Amino acid sequence: MATTDEKRGPFDYSNDPVRPSPHLLVRKDEPFNAEPTLSALVRRYITPVPEFFKRNHGPIPDLDASKHTVSVEAPELPSITSRRFNMSELRQFPKREIIAAIQCAGNRRDGLNKLAKVKGVIWAAGTIGNATWAGATMRDVLLAAGVPEYDDPAVRGWHVSFEAIGECEEDRVYGSSIPLWMAMSPNRDVLLAYEMNGATLTRDHGYPIRVIVPGVIGARSVKWLDRITIQPAESNSFFQQRDYKILPPHVRENELAEWWPRLVALQELNVQSVICEPTEDQSVNGGPLTIRGYAISGAYWRMHVSVDGGRTWKMAELYNTSPSPERHWGWTLWALRVPKLSIDAELVCRAWDAAGNTQPELPVYNYRGVMNNAQHRIRVLPSSKV
Ligand SMILES: Nc1nc2c(c(=O)[nH]1)N[C@H]1C(S)=C(S)[C@@H](COP(=O)(O)O)O[C@H]1N2
Ligand SMILES: [Mo]
C-alpha cells in the first residue's frame, strides 16, 4: 500500500552481484545505483550489459528460474481464473526481439538539483541504455490467460499492474502499472523479457524475467516479475501513486500528500537529447572536433546542435537501426563534425519530434527531479588554458 514516505529496511545487500565495469559511476551502493560515463555510453549503438545503468530500490533477488512462475490474475473479472506460467511455458510463446532504449525518469536529475534540492539519487545523463530485448509479448501471454481485447466493454480503460519479488525501500514490493491498451497493443511491443543483448538476463537487470515497456519511463519495466493483475484502476504502488510524477515547481516536502493524488503518473518519454562528447569542461583544441550524443522520443526527430550557445543551429547526422517508424523504440545516436571551434564555445543540443515538440531552453524544477529534458548545454575549455 502506498501510505508513507518512510523508508523500510535496513536490508541485507551481501548477496548482490559483483559488477566489474570500470565505466560505471556508482551513485549509491545500497541499493545499488550506477550509471556509465557519457563517453562510454555513446561509444556503441547497443549498450553492453556491464555498462547499462542499474537502478534499484532494494537488494537484488537471487531467483531460481526452474522454480520461478509469473501469475496472471483479474480478481474483478469473473470470466478469468488466475494462472501461473513457469519459465518454460513462457519460452514456448513466439519469441519476439526488439531494440529498445530504457531511460530512468530521473535521468539528468543533477540539472534540477542545481536549481533547488531534489529528492532521489543524483543522476547525471547516463541513466539510459539501448539494448535488444527478447521474450514473449505481453499480448500473447494475456490472451493465453483469457484476458479480453482492450476494447471489450468489460475491460475498457483498465490497467495492467506488475509486482516484483524482493524487498524494496518504499513499499511492500516494487510495482507499477500501464494501461491495458498499451499492454495488449500489437504495435507497442510490451514484452516479458528473458534475454538482453542475446544472452539470458543478468540478476541486476531482472533475472529470470522482467517487463519491458518500450517508449515509457524505466520505472514501468518491472524486474524480477512475480504477478500481473488486470484491474480497473492504476497500481496502488508507491511508484505509481506518489513517485514518478511532475510536481509544480513551488511544491516542497510538506505539501506532497495533497499534491500526489492530483498529478498524472508518468508513462511516455518526453523528447530528450544529450551531448556525450566532448564532456563538460573537457579541454579541446580549436577543431576540427566531432560532437556526439544520444536522442530519444516517441516519434521521428531531427537534431540541432549549436556551438555558439544557441544563437545558430546546425543539423546533426543521425544513426538509428530501428526497423520502422512506428517501432522506433531504440535511441538515435547523432554526430556533428565542426571544422573550427571558438575559444569560449558553448555547445547546446536539442531534438525535435514529429509532433513539433522540442526541449525547453531552461530546466524547470520539480521536487522529485524527474523528466529533465532541458536543452543540454556544456562549456568546453580551450586547450591553451590547460
Ligand atoms: N523490481 C524492480 N523493478 C524495477 C526497479 C526496481 O527497483 N525493482 N527499478 C525500476 C526503475 S526506476 C528503472 S529506471 C528500471 C531500471 O532498469 P535497469 O536496472 O535494468 O537499468 O527498472 C525498473 N524496474
Ligand atoms: Mo527509474
TrEMBL record:
Residues 1-24 are annotated as: Disordered. GO terms for biological process: sulfur compound metabolic process. GO terms for cellular component: mitochondrion. Residues 57-238 form the Oxidoreductase molybdopterin-binding domain. It comes from the Eukaryota. Residues 265-380 form the Moybdenum cofactor oxidoreductase dimerisation domain. InterPro entries: Ig_E-set, MoCF_OxRdtse_dimer, Mopterin_OxRdtase_euk, OxRdtase_Mopterin-bd_dom, OxRdtase_Mopterin-bd_sf. GO terms for molecular function: heme binding; molybdenum ion binding; molybdopterin cofactor binding; sulfite oxidase activity. Residues 1-10 have a biased composition (Basic and acidic residues). Keywords: Metal-binding, Molybdenum, Oxidoreductase. Its cofactor is Mo-molybdopterin. This is Sulfite oxidase. It comes from Thamnocephalis sphaerospora.
